What we know:
single chain; 111 residues; mainly alpha; 3 helices; flat
Amino acid sequence: MTDLNAAFENFKLKQELRDVNLISASIKHEVVTPLRCLAVMADDAPNNADNHERLLRTVYTTSNLCLSYVEGQMDQLFLENGHFEPNIQHHRLFDEVIRPVMVLFELQSKM
Length: 111
């Protein structure tokens, strides 16, 4: 029984490592270049008084975009590999934006 448990644990570890490698390979190409540019800009910001604020704003904004991209890629890979299910919830955007636009279109179509 111990050998069976060890084999199962080994299988689970190999599966997790494969998933990590898959995530790493998928994300690496699209994110490495922007991250390298961000590092250069962040290093240069203290030495560049003229563009200091603009560089820091660019670093902050671009790093948030990179983070959003990575999180999106990870979510997609986890979904594709069956690690979690999407949590679809009602959003107020529908009530506040989409529904009024649909009503407006319906009214216009009846004119």
